[in-house]
């Protein structure tokens, strides 16, 4: 018996040396906003590792926001701390590209062949391009929508089945909801944190951040004036208090706010937080200019950072998987983001029937035709520029400055931060 055991043992050793070693590649992945993406990332990575047992995914500490995320990556660039893959806000891809931190995915896309067959149309690929360079693959894309408390709308004399279509209607109904009393507010507009929701108003009026050659500020033109005027009217006429972002979200979920305007990416969390406290509805966000108005595309892209050839091959597999139809089929129902992969959106194997069964998700999907890229300011001061805009919006909301004065101050300061031509 011992002799037979020795034979099997020897055979096993011989076989082990005869077969090629199945080396495991470990990829370190960084991502932002764990409140939105932790469960999504865990699900996608688990499925990916099941299908690719030779690749292990481990996560670096996530960043709380897109702004913190880009600053973390730029600090770690070129050091041992830098992850192999990161997920970066679409408006910060330009900063990575200008510093030559990200791997150019263009050759990998070209080698792949027909990416459209896998749901990556040219339109979707362009979301993560900078000056024609493929810096990443769009992973989660969003647009701003209207969330509303159907019970409060009805109590204030509105029709929950026909929500406001214009800002005038929103502000008027918000004022009526505020007048209901009992600690109820009319509107929460998520202006804090970055320039995204301001750009929703600016782009919605047909405006733009800078002029065509990016030498001068353009957001202080007539379109920008209309945008900040709407913010002031929300405060003075629509019953919008000075909320922090978390406080506004909590008040809305508690049934104390009529309308909330923010990313469709917050939808799943909002549904969970609202529960059965009131009837939650969603609708399109109004455009100041219904004909020429557009909406910014929020979200992030998966970016490869590692310069190691073997790791790049594994990272490309993960990037395609995460941004592909399976990844999109996890991101959309897991967050509320709109699908960044056309195959996922159309195929019954993924999200084909999802929107019919989940009407709250339809508002974001219906706005996809008017989505344009989230503007990325040139130069090294992108984060400071964003904060300057936010600081001046704060002055409008707390009524310490007139809209035109705050807009003029923001424009003057931002112009001084632009790269010299």
From TrEMBL:
Tell me the keywords, alphabetical order: Periplasm, Signal
Pfam families assigned to the protein according to its UniProt record, in alphabetical order: SBP_bac_8
Localization per Swiss-Prot or TrEMBL? Periplasm
Q: Main subcellular localization, coarse class? A: periplasm
**Keyword match Transmembrane helix:** no
Which superkingdom heads the taxonomic lineage of this protein's source?
A: Bacteria
One GO location term (cellular component): periplasmic space
Signal peptide (residue range): 1-23
Q: Which family does it belong to?
A: Belongs to the bacterial solute-binding protein 1 family.
The name this protein goes by in its record: Glycerol-3-phosphate ABC transporter substrate-binding protein
Q: Which lineage do the record's taxonomy fields give for this organism?
A: Bacteria, Pseudomonadati, Pseudomonadota, Alphaproteobacteria, Hyphomicrobiales
């Amino acid at each position: 018996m011992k002799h037979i055991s020795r034979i099997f043992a020897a055979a096993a050793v011989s076989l082990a040396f005869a077969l090629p070693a199945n080396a495991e590649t470990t990829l370190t992945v960084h991502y932002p906003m764990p409140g939105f993406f932790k469960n999504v990332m865990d699900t996608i990575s688990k499925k990916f590792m099941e299908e690719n047992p030779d690749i292990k995914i481990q996560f670096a500490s996530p960043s709380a926001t897109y702004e913190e995320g880009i600053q973390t990556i730029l600090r770690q660039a070129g050091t041992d701390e830098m992850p192999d893959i990161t997920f970066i806000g679409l408006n910060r891809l330009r900063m990575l590209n200008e510093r030559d931190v990200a791997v150019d995915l263009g050759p990998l896309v070209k080698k792949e062949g027909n990416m459209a067959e896998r749901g990556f149309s040219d339109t979707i690929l362009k979301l993560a391009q900078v000056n024609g360079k493929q810096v990443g693959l769009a992973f989660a894309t969003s647009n701003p929508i209207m969330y509303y408390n159907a019970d409060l709308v009805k109590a204030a004399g509105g029709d929950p089945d026909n929500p406001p279509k214009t800002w005038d209607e929103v502000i008027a109904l918000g004022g009526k909801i505020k007048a209901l009393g009992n600690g109820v507010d009319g509107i929460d507009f998520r202006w804090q944190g970055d320039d995204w929701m301001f750009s929703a108003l600016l782009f919605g009026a047909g405006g733009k951040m800078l002029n065509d050659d990016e030498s001068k500020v353009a957001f202080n033109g007539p379109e920008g004036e209309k945008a900040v005027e709407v913010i002031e009217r929300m405060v003075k006429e629509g019953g919008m208090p000075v909320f922090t972002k978390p406080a506004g979200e909590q008040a809305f979920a508690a049934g104390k706010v009529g309308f909330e305007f923010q990313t469709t990416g917050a939808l799943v969390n909002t549904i969970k937080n609202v529960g059965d406290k009131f009837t939650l509805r969603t609708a399109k966000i109004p455009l100041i200019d219904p004909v020429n108005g557009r909406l910014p595309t929020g979200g992030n892209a998966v970016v490869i950072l590692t310069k190691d050839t073997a790791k790049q091959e594994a990272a490309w597999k993960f990037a395609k998987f995460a941004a592909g139809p399976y990844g999109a089929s996890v991101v959309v129902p897991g967050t509320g983001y709109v699908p960044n992969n056309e195959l996922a959106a159309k195929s019954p194997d993924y999200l084909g029937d999802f929107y019919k069964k989940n009407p709250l998700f339809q508002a974001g999907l219906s706005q996809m035709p008017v989505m344009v890229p989230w503007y990325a300011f040139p130069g090294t001061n992108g984060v400071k520029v964003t904060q300057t805009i936010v600081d001046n919006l704060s002055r409008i909301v707390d009524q310490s400055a007139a809209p035109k004065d705050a807009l003029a101050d923001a424009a003057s300061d931002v112009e001084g931060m632009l790269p010299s031509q």
